[in-house]
Design a protein that fits this description.
It catalyses: N(6)-[(R)-lipoyl]-L-lysyl-[glycine-cleavage complex H protein] + glycine + H(+) = N(6)-[(R)-S(8)-aminomethyldihydrolipoyl]-L-lysyl-[glycine-cleavage complex H protein] + CO2. This is Glycine dehydrogenase (decarboxylating). Keywords: Coiled coil, Oxidoreductase, Pyridoxal phosphate. InterPro entries: GcvP (IPR003437), GDC-P_C (IPR049316), GDC-P_N (IPR049315), GDC_P (IPR020581), PyrdxlP-dep_Trfase (IPR015424), PyrdxlP-dep_Trfase_major (IPR015421), PyrdxlP-dep_Trfase_small (IPR015422). The chain is about 35% helix and about 10% strand. By secondary structure, the protein is α/β, with parallel strands linked by helices. Among the domains are: about 105-225 and about 235-355, Aspartate Aminotransferase, domain 2; about 565-760, Aspartate Aminotransferase, domain 2; about 775-930, Aspartate Aminotransferase, domain 1. Helix 3 packs across helix 25 (about 765-795) and helix 8 (about 125-140) crosses helix 17 (about 485-500). The radius of gyration is 28 Å and the shape is globular. The termini are far apart.
Length: about 950
């Protein structure tokens, strides 16, 4: 017995989390290694990873901890945060997330582990939810077309600035911004405007557009409605005046206020932007939240980001899809005016469902209560002799207390309430859905006022201007009236999620996207109130736990990447790209090298790279890709020499976009540095490097990292994401900063990239937990198993489909590309046919036609076990057999299981005239009836949807069609 004794220390720690995260166990790994031809993980990665980039030393990270230990550590951090009543306002408000939405959307893996709906046939649930969101935004703003969400209000306003320049006809170069706009919005606009040569003028527009500004030429105007100070004023005269000058007008509007106030569209606005945060989405210390943009119909095809449209499937049934996908950076690349390639889907779904659950009457009630509290708050202050700056307001009042502002704010804080000090004399107080009578009384006390709220309620009228009260109906579609009970809402959410395919159903083998486990332990703290209910502009001493977590995460990301400093402010990979390139630009300018504006980008790069470079004030020069998928070394040398004096930066993805470890990356970096340029290493494929190599050590000066890929933040149906930027020391002074939180970045920084100081801080506990649970050795093994999985798939499929690119040792990195072009040419079966047929086998397709048209890029990640990987390989091999039956003439090219895929349950009914059987259609090899996933629609006609653009809930007369 003694000989078999297990030490108590080992028993206490239990099963390491690493074994929960990594799918293949030791036995499975041995089988996979045998297939690939290597004896161990170390042997495989030694052969796959070029010596010149390898990291010799182990990652210097804290030892891995158990799930219970990590949750306890997070609880300790959470306890160091103070959550006061959030009456700061400025675009962030307390809100109640209905528990049925919290549990069944935000905490439900059927929603948060889904991917971007690029395969719409298996995304109908989230697409319908996004259509609801678009309808809410469109109808409340009074503008006919809304997108499927943007990153936050500040970046949405910046997108409006560039959209206005693209679609407008005015010749001026000034973008005029309301002085009463949110301060962070103004700052983000200024950050985005300077590199592309737009002049931003901030002016008081309460009396109209100043004549001296109008004379200089305005192409666009942004008006805040209601203003940041709380003022509600008639903005129509400013809109009309701007239109007379030929300018495009954007209105940054509060959606809750729009349930009571005349819509921007009715007032003549061309664009409306804002945030949907207060529709049930926790503040989360700044995010993630779903920003919005709505436009007039004539601008719909220039809308940045994603747009959900209504189309039809092969049977003519209504079906949803992403509309107008061939636009902006997808095809325009360096001509794009936006680098947005993502959305905030999970948060948009929550905000849309908040409106579905409450309906127009419920939203109006919440808004009326919020306004009533603000009115009574102001009345009590006025009765106590305090001057209220504005006579009309919605939820925010600004009080003038000469020389006493700091004293009042401090007193309120002692009473458990956070207020906003605008300057030495002005204090702003914002009410919201969570405001209580006790909060109002605490604010009065801080001002030195006492009042009777009941008496004030009896004697005080509301303050919204009569002429701006909303009179039109909104949210009239049945979806906003049928789900008042929790039972009905629960079933609606279940019905939608059942239509979708997410990681909780099976493998999503998307190359370059890294759909790995989002562990429940990592997710759990996100909804704790100490993390979820903190205002981003709360005093930093109230966020000690959060800031400790952020600092530790940044430091650990530095260790993983080899960089000296990380900023987690960018709230998407595209924004991390922009932040990194702006740092490079600022560095060159600080050195007097303002002529360095050339950005070299390989032709295989993701479109956001080129779009981000242009937004950073750079000129893109494309470098050819060689036949083996690597950067064309000769063309790169020629381009470096040609642009030596103007070279700012080279942007490369490593491992390459083609899924291989390029052997000459260190030489490439050295050539760029020798010419005076910087090297930007796109971190999209960092899942192949962690623990094996560090970009900051093999030549990178700057990288963005996708925390929603390598570091386990879930994709959420296409968002949220976090795209922190890491830099070497010489670029650190030029990282993002923030005007309202000086500790969020260097004083010499380029300005804010995102509206919130620490970006989407609300989901950073996920990545912090992942690193803490895995430790350095666990992270390295995760990388090694990811590389093993990709090579195992490549070896299994190679006899049936050629693998397009390989690197050292004929190996791939963490993903592989199979080439379907010869097969398509010989048989007529398309990459689309194979992708849709995979649905019948119960899979989400790999990445289609990126980076090479007519190919599939496959990434299993380390989290998929061998049984699931084999199930996928078996399906692909079976499909290859089906293609042979088409090639052999057994099945016609236009009537076979691939051409007709996917097959729905409804398609099985009635007469069957196909040359293959019903069982062959829906129960192909390996698929059983008990485990069958049934797609809700057949193949969708994308062209029809683009020709007949419908992007909100269909009218009532079509509801039963």
């Amino acid at each position: 017995m003694t000989a078999n004794r297990i030490p108590l220390s080992q028993l206490e720690r239990g099963i390491p989390f690493e074994q929960r995260h990594i799918g293949p166990d030791a036995e499975a790994q041995a089988k996979m290694l045998a297939q690939v031809g290597y004896g161990s993980l170390d042997e495989l990665t030694a052969a796959a990873v070029p010596d010149v980039i390898k990291t010799a030393e182990a990652l210097d990270l804290p030892e891995a901890r158990t799930e219970a230990e990590v949750l306890a550590e997070l609880r300790s951090l959470a306890d160091r945060n103070q959550v006061l009543s959030p009456m700061i306002g400025l675009g962030y408000y307390g809100t109640f997330t209905p528990p049925v939405i919290l549990r069944n959307v935000m905490e439900n893996p059927a929603w948060y582990t889904a991917y971007t709906p690029y395969q719409p046939e298996i995304s109908q649930g989230r697409l319908e939810a996004l259509l609801n969101f678009q309808t809410v935004v469109a109808e409340l703003t009074g503008l006919p077309t809304s997108g499927a969400s943007l990153l936050d209000e500040g970046t949405a306003a910046a997108e409006a600035m560039t959209l206005a320049r693209r679609v407008g006809r005015a010749k001026g170069n000034i973008f005029l911004v309301d002085a009463d706009a949110l301060p962070q919005t103004i700052a983000v606009i200024e950050t985005r405007a300077e590199p592309i040569g737009i002049e931003v003028v901030v002016a008081d527009l309460s009396a109209g557009i100043p004549a001296e500004v109008a004379e200089r030429g305005i192409y666009g105007v942004l008006v805040q409605y209601p203003g940041a100070s709380g003022a509600v004023r008639d903005i129509k005269p400013v809109i009309d005046q701007a239109h007379e000058l030929g300018a495009i007008v954007a209105v940054s509007a509060d959606l809750l206020a729009l349930t009571l106030l005349t819509s921007p569209g009715a007032l003549g606005a061309d664009i409306a932007v804002g945030t949907t945060q207060r529709f049930g989405v926790p503040m989360g210390f700044g995010g993630p939240h779903a920003g919005y943009m709505a436009v007039q119909d004539k601008h719909a095809r220039s809308l940045p980001g994603r747009l959900v449209g209504v189309s039809v499937d092969a049977d003519g049934n209504k079906a949803y899809r992403l509309a107008l996908q061939t636009r902006e950076q997808h095809i325009r690349r360096e001509k794009a005016t936006s680098n947005i390639c993502t959305a905030q889907v999970l948060l948009a779904v929550m905000a849309g469902m908040y409106a579905v659950y409450h309906g127009p009457d419920g939203l109006r009630t919440i808004a009326s209560r919020t306004h009533r509290y603000a009115t009574l708050l102001a009345a009590g202050l006025k009765a106590g002799g305090v001057e209220i700056v504005h006579g009309s307001y919605f939820d925010t009042i600004t009080a003038r207390v000469p020389g006493r502002a700091a004293e009042v704010v401090a007193a309120a804080r002692e009473g458990g309430v956070n207020l906003f000090q605008a300057d030495a004399d002005l204090v702003s107080v914002a009410c919201d859905e969570t405001t209580l009578r006790a909060d109002i009384e605490a604010v009065w006390a801080a001002f030195g006022v006492t009042a009777d709220i009941e008496a004030l309620d009896a004697d005080t009228a509301d303050t919204l201007p009569e002429g701006l009260l909303r009179s039109d109906a909104y949210l009239t579609h049945p979806v906003f009236h049928q789900h008042r009970s929790e039972t009905a809402m629960l079933r609606y959410l279940r019905k939608l999620s059942d239509k979708d395919y997410a990681l909780d159903r099976g493998m999503i083998p998307l190359g370059s996207c890294t759909m790995k486990l989002n562990a429940t332990t990592e997710m759990e703290p996100v909804t704790w109130p100490e993390f979820g209910q903190l205002h981003p502009f709360a005093p930093v001493e109230q966020a000690e736990g959060y800031l400790t977590l952020i600092t530790e995460l940044e430091e650990r990301l530095c260790e993983v990447t080899g960089y000296d400093k990380v900023s987690i402010q960018p709230n998407a990979g595209s924004q991390g790209e922009l932040a990194g390139l702006l740092a490079v630009r600022a560095y060159h300018r600080a050195n007097g090298d303002e002529q360095r504006t050339i950005c070299l980008i390989p032709s295989s790069a993701h479109g956001t790279n080129a779009a981000s470079a242009v937004m950073a004030g750079m000129k893109v020069v494309v470098v050819k890709t060689a036949d083996d998928g690597e950067v064309d070394a000769a063309d790169l040398r020629a381009k470096i020499e040609q642009h030596r004096d103007e070279l700012a930066v080279l942007m490369i993805t490593y491992p390459s976009t083609h899924g291989v470890f390029e052997e000459h990356v260190a030489d490439i970096c050295a050539q760029v540095h020798e010419a005076g340029g910087q090297v930007y290493v796109d971190g999209a494929n960092l899942n192949a490097l962690v623990g094996l190599a560090k970009p900051g050590h093999f030549g990178g000066d700057v990288s963005h990292l996708n925390l929603h890929k390598t570091f386990c933040i879930p994709h959420g149906g296409g968002g949220p994401g976090v795209g922190p930027v890491g830099v070497r020391a010489h670029l650190a002074p030029y990282l993002p900063n923030h005007p309202l939180q000086p500790t969020a970045g260097p004083e010499t920084g380029v300005g804010p990239i995102s509206a919130a100081p620490w970006g989407s801080a609300g989901i950073l506990p996920i990545s912090w937990s992942y690193v803490r649970l895995m430790g350095g050795e666990g992270l390295k093994r995760a990388t090694q198993v990811a590389v093993l999985g990709a090579n195992y798939i490549a070896k299994r499929l190679e006899p049936h489909y050629p693998v397009l690119y390989t690197g050292p040792g004929n190996l791939v990195a963490h993903e592989c590309i199979i080439d379907l072009r010869p097969l398509s040419k010989a048989t007529g079966v398309s990459v689309d046919d194979i992708a849709k047929r995979l649905i019948d086998y119960g899979f989400h397709a790999p990445t289609m036609s990126f980076p090479v048209a007519g190919t599939l890029m496959i990434e299993p990640t380390e989290s998929e076990d061998l049984a699931e990987i084999d199930r996928f390989c078996d399906a692909m091999i079976a499909i290859r057999g089906e293609i042979e039956r088409v090639a052999g003439g057994e099945w016609p090219l236009d009537d076979n299981p691939l051409a007709n895929a996917p097959h729905t349950a409804a398609a099985l009914g009635g007469e069957w005239n196909h040359p293959y059987s019903r069982d062959e259609a829906v129960f192909p090899a390996g698929v059983t009836a008990a485990e069958k996933y049934w797609p809700p629609v057949r193949r969708i006609d994308g062209a029809f949807g683009d020709r007949n653009l419908v992007c909100s809930c269909p009218p009532l007369d079509e509801y039963d069609a």
